[in-house]
Amino acid sequence: MMGDFKDTLEAWKTGAARLDAVGAKLREVGMRLSYHNHDWEFQTFEGDDRAKLEILMAETTPGNLCAELDLAWVKAGGSDPAEIMLKFKDRCPMIHAKDLVEGKRLLNRRVQFVPLGQGILDWDAIFKAGREAGVEWYIYEQDNATKDIFECAQESLDFLKKSLSV
Fold first, then answer.
1. DSSP string, 35-84
2. Which of 12, 57, 82, 107 has the smallest set of CB atoms within 10 Å of its CB?
3. Which domains, from first to last, does the chain contain?
């Protein structure tokens, strides 16, 4: 999360305070600070049943920190992307739209990403939650691929056009 960061509950709270302060300064000049998640932000600490991302969001002011949710990593972390989007309603203006297949790896990655609509994410629920949560941007991202990256991008674009009726 930041330079001297340690993975403890206290460190997450301290980190949240730092991000909150930076977010407040950015807000003064019309900018928003966002935190991009991976799967480890859905782990918990002993004695606290909240996911690390929940701690981070609870310890910051809504206007000072947004969640830049990476939906594939939300799913890989064991959470439901649509539920998390709704949990952080009005705090996730943009999301990283990625899909993955379960139980497969590519190279040294923990998961294998695939074009949108070809994996295990429930996109109908995600788009519904996105409307309710105030998502402004769906940012397509393909971290790695088993085929030509441009082919993946085209398949994902086709999926988005069909799903969103554009």
1. EE--GGGG-EETTEEEEHHHHHHHTS-TTT-EEEEEHHHHHHTT--HHHH
2. 107
3. 9-164 (3.20.20.150)
